[in-house]
Fold this sequence. Notes:
The protein has 424 residues and is α/β, with parallel strands linked by helices. The protein has 14 helices and 17 strands.
Amino acid sequence: MAAISLAGCELGVATAATQIEGGNADTNWHRWAKLPGQVADNTSPTRAADHWNRVDSDIELLQRLGVKHYRMGLEWARIEPAPGVYDTAAIDHYVDELKKLKAAGIKPLVTLHHFSNPGWLESTGGWLKAHTIGVFERYVHRVVEAFEDLATDWITVNEPNVYALKGFIEGEWPPGRKSLADGVKVMEHLAYAHIIAYKLIHDMQPAANVGAAHHLRVFRPAQAWNPVDQASSAAQEWLFQSALVRAMSAGKFLPPFKQPKYIRPGRYYDFHGINYYGPSEVHFLSNGAGKGVPVNDLGWEIYPQGLAELAKRIHKAYPGPIYITENGTADANDSFRPLFIFDHLKAALESGAPIARFYHWCFTDNWEWTEGESARFGLLGLDYDTQERVWRDSAAFYADISANNGVTEDAYTRWVASRSYRYS
Length: 424
Ligand code: IFM
C-alpha cells in the first residue's frame, strides 16, 4: 500500500522575504552579496523571484497548489529602514498581502527574523550585541500592532543555530566572523529575543500562536564503535541544537549559555517548528553526509526517517503540536523531489508525533544565500530572466496531495513509483 492519509496534518509551503521578494533593501545580505566571491554564482537577492511585485499571481499559484497555509517572511530592513523609522508603505504592502491571503482562504505563518538584518543594525554590531534584543522587540511590537488580527501565527526566529554557525563561527555568511564564543553569544541573544517576542506577542494578541523554526539534524558517529566519534557527535548535537531548543522552549539556559537575569524557566512555545533537511555523520570534529547514501544536488544526505526521529524526540522533551516549518530539497531537474516529498511525509505521518502542519520548502525556486540562484528548491521552477514560474511535477503531486488529503495509489503510481535517488 503506497497510499497515505494526511489525517489531521495540513499542508503549506514556505518562503523567506530575502529569498523571494527581490528589490534593493539595505540588508546584511544585499551588502554581503556585493563582496567579491561570497556568493557562488555572483547573484544577489535583488532579483530573486520578484515576489514583491507578483503577490497577486503568486497567491493564485498558492490556490492552485491547494495549500491551506503559507509561511512568509518579513524584510525588517523594508519595515524599519533607519533606526526607529518605520516605512508605512512597506508595512501596508504586507498588510495588503495578508488581506489577499485571507481572501484566498490561506492562513499565513509570519516569520519575523529569517537571517536578514537591516544594514544599520548590522553596522552597530547586530546580534552580537545584547542591545539588539530590545531593538528587535520594538520592531515586533510595530509589526504586530500593524497586522492586527490578519496574522496570529508567528515564527519569531528562523534557524538561530544556522545563522550563528554560518555567520559567526564558520564565517561564510555575514558578518563573516570566525569565533566559537561569538557564535554562542549570538545564539544566546536570539534565544532571549525569541522569549521576549513570545511574551510580547501574547500580551498583544489573545489568539496568538507563536513558535520558532529550528533547524534540526540527526547526528550519528561515522564509526559507531569509535568513542571519539561518539563523544564528538553528542557534543556537536548539544552545541548545534539541543541546548538552544531547551533555552528557547523552556527558558533553561544551560552551558555554554548563561541564564539571562530576567528570564525564568517556563513554556515559551505554542508549537515547535522543525526545519529538516538531513542527518550529519560525525567523524572526529568534522561532519557531513555519509558515504554511499542518497544525496541531493548540493551533496546533502537524504534520510527521511530522521524527520520522524526528531519529531518524536522533540515532542517527548517538550510536548506540543509540531509544525514541519521546512522540508524540501535541491533538485534542479525535479528528478527525485516527488519521491523525497513522499518519503518525508510518510515518515512524519507515521511517526506518531502530533504533526499538525507540513510546509514544503520552497514554494518556488529562490535565492539560496551563498549558493545564489543555482540551488533549486522550488515546487515551482523559476526562470530568473523572465520570472516565469514553471509548474513542476512536484507541484502537480503536491496539489494532488492537497486535493485528496493524502497520497492516493494513483498519485503514487503517477509521480513517485518510477523515481529513485542518486547515491554519493
Ligand atoms: O533556504 C534555506 C532557508 O532559508 C532556511 N532553511 C534551509 C533552506 C535550504 O537551505
